[in-house]
Amino acid sequence: DAGVIQSPRHEVTEMGQEVTLRCKPISGHDYLFWYRQTMMRGLELLIYFNNNVPIDDSGMPEDRFSAKMPNASFSTLKIQPSEPRDSAVYFCASRPTGNTGELFFGEGSRLTVL
Amino acid sequence: AQRVTQPEKLLSVFKGAPVELKCNYSYSGSPELFWYVQYSRQRLQLLLRHISRESIKGFTADLNKGETSFHLKKPFAQEEDSAMYYCALKRNQGGKLIFGQGTELSVKP
Fold it and tell me: Is the minimum CB–CB distance between A38 and chain B shorter than 8 Å?
């Protein structure tokens, strides 16, 4: 298994543009998490899904952020419109049910909004 | 509310020196605590969890419920320990993992 796969690895865009980040979890994992990593705030949980259903989106910063999981093998995090303060590394992670809490992380998507 | 606090953003030690990365948490129930590590150009990965009471790469961490702490320790730091370390908390009945702000450990030769 290639692990959690994220794309793009790097994205540079201009303020106001729409950004879509993608994630493919490990097959068989029913939990999927989106985190944002910044120097100031560390790793912040944005939203997580269980069996494709959003369970907790309290970490989503504002309405400009949205996340979907249309099926068990794909999730997107969208920012529209993007702002410079959204610049960060966005991580996707997954884990199976019954696991004691170990998350398997993707390599991250580094977003720069100019 | 759940919270994980890592008071040090950067910890710099010399090779062979002891190291302690601090982690404090706030949670009223019975938490599960973890340490994750991110080496340069590698994925964030689990280092150890409190319920296993294990030593990984010479690191140990003891859950102190009285002080609500889960500090990570190693008696003799190695250069290859240089990395970003995150403490994390999971509620006993919950699905989500909450991370601290992270501590960058730099081990100098």
Answer: no
Strands B19-21 and B10-14, bridge-based pairing: unpaired
Q: Which residues of B are less than 8 Å from A105 in CB distance?
A: 43-45
Largest CA distance in chain A: 42
Is pLDDT above 90 for B50? no
Phi, psi of B104 (to 5 degrees): -90, 120
Residue B51: closest CA among chain A residues belongs to which residue? A100
Listed by start position, the domains of chain B span 3-108
CATH number of B3-108: 2.60.40.10
Q: Does A1 touch chain B (CB under 8 A)?
A: no
Note the pLDDT of residue A99: 65
CA distance A104 to A28: 12
Q: Which residue would you say has higher pLDDT here, B19 or B27?
A: B19
How many beta carbons lie within 10 A of that of residue A114, not counting itself?
10
For residue A34, what pLDDT is reported?
97
